[in-house]
Amino acid sequence: MRLFVAVELPDDIKDRLSHLCAGLRGAKWSDPEQMHLTLRFIGDVDGVTAHDLALALSQVRAPQFDVALAGLGDFTTRGRVSTLWVGVRANPDLAALHARIESAVRRVGIPPEPRKFHPHVTLARFATGRRDPTPALGRYLAEHEPFSTAPFTAEEFTLFSSVLGSEGATHIPETAYPLQLPPRPPSAGEGRGEGG
User: At a CB cut-off of 8 Å and minimum separation 6, what does 196 contact?
Assistant: First the structure.
């Protein structure tokens, strides 16, 4: 099984992102319905490891938090643009959740992620060997900046499997893990003793 852990995006956010998916020749645009905020890519594992991973993730405890997307950028591979992405506003709760998931992943014997966590939503990929999209990409980024969304609440994270096909990868949610509601503040009068 090819697995990864991610936060699902609300439909209205996917709709906003879909409007960005045009205007660059050679781009392999992500299907907005398949877009997500990846927390940890796992890769191919056997059935035993997948079972152990699902169990380890069920023990992750973290609060719900708000997420907002903001900004556009790209990753380069060997000096060529390989990926176009939408960024995520700095968020300590998201970073803490990622750290807990990384710890759970390592406990089942999966090697640590060598790259620094850079939360993003992938918009498009560019095949190596084709024309370098860099000149057109500059115009695209200028046209679509500044991009941002209203915050949405991450209520759970999900273990996905990914099936590769001729049209790209199809992501299948395997197990969703709820995040905890923040503690309710005491209402007026709670916590006080009776009398004066």
Answer: none
**In this predicted model, what pLDDT tens digit does every residue of 27-72 receive, in sequence order?**
899 999 999 999 999 999 999 999 999 999 999 999 999 999 999 9
> What is the distance between the terminal CA atoms of the chain, rounded to a whole angstrom?
65
CATH number of the domain within which 73 lies: 3.90.1140.10
Q: Name residue, tokens 């050679």.
A: 26
Give domain status of residue 194, yes or no.
Answer: no
Domains contained in the chain, number: 1
pTM equals 0.85
Q: Residues 104-146: pLDDT tens digits?
A: 999 999 999 888 999 999 999 887 655 666 678 888 888 887 8
Residue type, 173: P
Domain containing 101 equals: 2-178
Q: What share of the chain is helix, strand, coil (3-state, %, to 5)?
A: 25, 40, 35
Q: Is residue 113 assigned to a domain?
A: yes
